[in-house]
Amino acid sequence: MSFWWFWTAPPVVEDALDEDLPKLAEIHESGFSHQWDADELARLKSQDGILMLTARRAGAYGTRNPLGFLVIRTVADEAEVLTIAVHPRHRGRGVGKKLMQEAIFRLYGDRCACLFLEVDAANEAALLLYRSLGFRQVGERKGYYREADGEGTALVMRIDLR
Ligand SMILES: CC(C)(COP(=O)(O)OP(=O)(O)OC[C@H]1O[C@@H](n2cnc3c(N)ncnc32)[C@H](O)[C@@H]1OP(=O)(O)O)[C@@H](O)C(=O)NCCC(=O)NCCS
Fold first, then answer.
1. Does a structural domain hold residue 47?
2. Mean of the per-residue pLDDT values of the chain
3. Which of 91, 99, 101 for a ligand 1 pocket mutation test, highest count of atoms within 8 Å of Cβ?
4. What is the pTM of this model?
5. Nearest to 155 by CA among 103, 75, 49, 81
6. Is residue 96 a part of any domain in this protein?
7. Which residue's CA is the closest to the ligand 1 atom numbered 27?
8. The domain that contains 36 carries what CATH number?
9. Among residues of the chain, what percentage have pLDDT more than 90?
10. Residue 147 forms part of a structural domain
11. Among 38, 76, 110, 158, whose Cα sits 20 to 30 Å from the Cα of 104?
């Protein structure tokens, strides 16, 4: 089997494993100025209501490297995206969308009423991702992201699941 297959094969999305956490912390660091290390991710993963998914692609020699991940917290029947990040080398190839689609599929199966999130209004890539999935803006918080390059406006977005 050629190496090309490994590069082009669609990613598989599954629950994150403890052994993934150092790699997920690296991916998080590549996407955000505030960093979550592996210990923080481990604490988060152990909490009630947390869904942590990893997108992987089969690699040569049997590896299944994480390409990206997301974390969602559900309280009662509402869920919130706490973070989503894809490794810079693998962005723009449908990994983020696949992660979100799997999360939405699971939340729908759990009879969750809605999924919401906050996103920097200047984060074009994230806005394109969320809009392509049917999220709509339901609120705005000006000056929310202090370290942001733009005005730091946070948009609150939501998708109804039932
Ligand atoms: C936001 C992020 C998770 C998107 O992940 P991704 O794997 O690159 O996104 P996808 O390839 O699945 O793209 C999903 C959709 O958005 C569009 N899109 C994503 N990034 C884009 C870009 N830079 N330019 C143009 N379109 C883009 C895609 O075309 C696709 O639309 P389509 O399905 O209608 O064709 C990724 O850019 C990232 O990790 N950014 C840093 C961390 C971050 O900002 N997280 C979000 C915080 S709210």
1. yes
2. 92
3. 91
4. 0.93
5. 81
6. yes
7. 125
8. 3.40.630.30
9. 78
10. no
11. 38
pLDDT value at residue 3? 59
pLDDT reading at 89 higher than 90: yes
Residue of 97, 102, 124, 155 to mutate, ligand 1, most atoms within 8 A of C-beta: 97
Is residue 148 one of the residues assigned to a domain? no
- Indicate the residue type of 127: L
Q: Which residues contact 78 (CB under 8 A, 6 or more apart)?
A: 112, 113, 114, 115, 116
Of the candidates 95, 91, 108, 98, the one whose C-alpha atom is nearest the C-alpha of residue 162 is 108
From the alpha carbon of 83, which atom of ligand 1 is closest? 47
Q: What six digits make up the tokens of 65?
A: 């490297």
What letter would DSSP give residue 100?
H
- Give mean pLDDT, residues 97-113: 97
Residue 2: pLDDT band with limits 50, 70, 90: low
Give me the number of domains the chain comprises: 1
Q: Ligand 1 atom 29: the closest Cα is on which residue?
A: 92
